[in-house]
Amino acid sequence: MTNLVCNVFDIVRNSFVDGPGIRTVVFFKGCNLNCQWCHNPEGKSFERQLLFYKDKCKNCGLCKQVCPYALLKCDYCGKCEFYCVHSARKIAGKAYDVEELFFEIEKDCNLYQETNGGVTFSGGECMLQIDFLESILKKCRANKIHTAVDTAGNVPWEYFERIIPYTDLFLYDVKCITESLHINYTDVSNQRILENLIRLSAICLDKIRIRIPVINEFNGNIKEMQKIAKFLRDLKLKKIELLPYHSLGEQKSIALGERVVSFSNPTEESMKQFRSLFDE
Asked: pLDDT of 94-150, one tens digit each?
């Protein structure tokens, strides 16, 4: 059997916001949505990438000295990142096999046990690397580590069937109900996403926590939020998080040399109004 390898762009420890307890969050590279507000744009591509934060660079020239190609090309060796004291350069993407990644996860086992925490697999879209995800979930289950899968749900239903037995919690993104709106802002339809959620809720209702990003220019209005609330209410889903937009992804997009689309944050009054729809 071929050794499974996954490309990971970050491992964040001591997270309190990605499931119960203290968690280690593993971010897989690669996504099949193109959300204009994405706060992890380095997670969209499956390939390794170099982020260059021009505003942090002091033009000391050390990166050019240590680079085997004098910055004329990049093989992602990481030397420029390692030697840059100003953190102006960062390589996004490192290959792990199942044993290597589990070694990183296992480091925090004491915290998981003390706080009823665990590991959360995110992205990008972690379910696009389903063979690897299934294997690492099995490994965690065998070692009694609580698992969560953070997903946008835009994958074949068969992928869910493969990992449901080994997943303790699904953090499921619902961005909007209006299909044309979803296409305009993510480049894909939400039909499969909503259909998968219907099927998932029928099987493991108590294992789902809904996450809704709130963006003024996208879904941050009463009409769309009412549609989302009704859809979730009909499915009897009650664990719901509303996540106000933040602009942390904009600097990453600039560092990647990508086009930046700016959005505005919802007001606290708007968030209070939206939350009341779901409280009902």
From this structure: 999 999 999 999 999 999 999 999 999 999 999 999 999 999 999 999 999 999 999
Residues 158 and 131 in one domain: yes
Cα distances (Å, whole numbers) of residue 109 to 17, 22, 119, 230 = 18, 10, 9, 39
The predicted model gives 5-13 an average pLDDT of 96
- The residue among 13, 1, 178 whose CA lies nearest residue 104 is 13
| Nearest alpha-carbon partner for 10 in 25, 31, 30, 23 | 25
Residue 247: what are its φ and ψ, rounded to 5°?
-100, 20
* pLDDT tens, residue by residue, 15-24: 999 999 999 9
* Domain identity same for 185 and 83: no
Query: Is 175 found in the same domain as 67?
Result: no
Residues contacting residue 84 through CB under 8 Å, at least 6 positions apart: 62, 63
Residues 75, 146, single domain; the answer is no
Neighbours of 157 (CB within 10 A): 13
Residue type for position 223: K
Residue 199 CA to chain centroid, in angstroms?
A: 22
Would you report the helix, strand and coil content of the chain in percent, each value rounded to 5? 40, 20, 40
Q: Which of 40, 64, 91 represents a domain boundary (last residue)? A: 91
Residues 25 and 83 in one domain: no
Instruction: Please indicate, yes or no, whether residues 73 and 183 belong to a single structural domain of this protein.
Output: no
Report residue 69 as tokens. 């190609």
For residues 146 and 197, membership in a common domain is answered with yes
Q: What is the CATH number of the domain that holds 122?
A: 3.20.20.70
The two beta strands, 5-15 and 94-97, are antiparallel
CA 86 to chain centre: 26
